[in-house]
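On clarity, I found the account of how folds are encoded harder to follow than it need be. For illustration, here is how one protein appears when written out as sequence plus structure tokens:

:::
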Amino acid sequence: MRLRLVIVMAALLLAGCGAGPAATPAGSSGTAAAQAADRSRAQALAFAWRLVNDLRPPPGTRPVHLSKLPPPLANPGPVRPGWVRVERTLTAPVNPRSAWAGLLAHTPLAELGPVAPAAAGMGTNLPAPEPGLDYARFSVTLVPLSRTTMLIAAAAQVAWLPVRTPAEHLDPASFQKVTISAQRVFPNLHQASGTFTSAAVIARLAAFLDARTPAPDAAVIGWTCVPAPWDITLRFTAWHRDGPSAVVTSGGCPGLDVITVNGSRQPLLWDINGGLAAMALALLHQTAA
């Protein structure tokens, strides 16, 4: 499943949006890029508002605009370049915990099934939520304002950067072989490796990587993740000395692959279901457990 549950225990996301790209002179070579960035930002903003407006609050809920938000919403932090952030704040005359299922019925959180809110609220990450967007975060936070009133804050943050670089596209015909090294970290140390020259194997691995969606670095800053059981490295070797070289690692943080081409690190790649690791371990006749 593409969704990753995040229990929200502190400040999440608040209203506001980043500044648009700087204007470029008419007719300059940067005009097309600036217009594309404007379109991407508009798409991200529309998607963010769609997420927060899909919230179905309990009866008697009213919009509210507070000049000062209570903790844990007081310090949302700056909006990073390439991101937009919006929030919808409401007050409910009753504790909305009793209406949690209805509150989230039309949001991405509904896909998690029946679940009660944990602590302050809950949220989810959505890699590549729609074509043209790279990442979205959606959250709903509950803050008591009084014994009879709750503040409901629905927030969305959406990124449309980065794009995949041409260097990151792997042409299988360029490579003579791929060497796979795998090290199982737990429950006990074990190593396996193999070199494969089959054009079909190289093409299958390259096609998988070429189809991945880039993950903005900002989307994973601060992530605390349990490493996968296996650390896996793929080294693609070109036919010619001046050909491309590519190194791909997986396992440091589940859900992400790191790719380096000719010594230059490229945008991170989403691999939520661990497909690359599964393919590599199968080639090495190893099991994931």
Remarks:
- The first helix runs from residue 31 to 53.
